[in-house]
């Protein structure tokens, strides 16, 4: 009886610390990738704002700026999802790997981050 209880507790701990974070990571991986891509694209767009609106009217510049600021909500969502994944036991290295994959898949982002 005690042996079965110890085995059950061991399996429960093993599941909680090893299997659940991996399962949680794979469930949220695609959603997180989309948030990272949207966030990085909004950062790139903000940095190019002056070039894009160079020959536009003031009203157009304001509208484009407000749209760009609104798109930065993706960054807040990404940070919340990242912290949520970390709290469920997903390692920071896996999260950084996803960010690197997103940058590697998009040539515009590669050019933007290599210019920095």
Annotation keywords:
single chain, 116 residues, mainly alpha, 6 helices, 0% strand, elongated
- Radius of gyration from the alpha-carbon trace, in angstroms: 21 Å
Given the helix and strand composition, which structural class is it?
A: mainly alpha
Helix content: over 70%
Shape verdict: elongated
Q: What is the overall pLDDT average?
A: 85
Number of strands: 0
Distance from N terminus to C terminus (CA atoms, Å) equals 62 Å
Number of domains: 1
Describe the main β-sheet briefly: none
What letter string, H or E per element, gives the SSE order? HHHHHH
Low-pLDDT stretches are none
What percent of residues are in strands? under 5%
- SS element count, helices: 6
What is the compact description of this entry?
By secondary structure, this protein is an all-alpha fold. 88% of the residues lie in helices and 0% in strands. The chain has helices at 2-47, 49-52, 58-71, 73-87, 92-105, 107-115.
Explain this structure.
This protein has one domain (2-115). The chain is 88% helix and 0% strand. The protein contains six helices and no strands.
List the helices and strands and how they pair.
Elements (H helix, E strand, L loop, with lengths): L1 H46 L1 H4 L5 H14 L1 H15 L4 H14 L1 H9 L1
Helix pairs in contact: 1-3, 1-4, 1-5, 5-6
């Amino acid at each position: 009886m005690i042996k079965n209880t110890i085995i059950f507790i061991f399996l429960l701990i093993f599941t909680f610390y090893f299997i659940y974070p991996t399962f949680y990571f794979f469930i949220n991986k695609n959603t997180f990738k989309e948030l990272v891509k949207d966030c990085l694209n909004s950062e790139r767009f903000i940095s190019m704002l002056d070039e894009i609106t160079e020959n536009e009217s003031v009203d157009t510049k304001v509208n484009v700026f407000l749209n760009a600021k609104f798109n930065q909500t993706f960054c807040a969502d990404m940070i919340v999802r990242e912290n949520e994944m970390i709290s469920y036991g997903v390692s920071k290295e896996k999260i950084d790997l996803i960010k690197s994959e997103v940058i590697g898949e998009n040539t515009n982002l590669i050019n933007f981050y290599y210019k920095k």
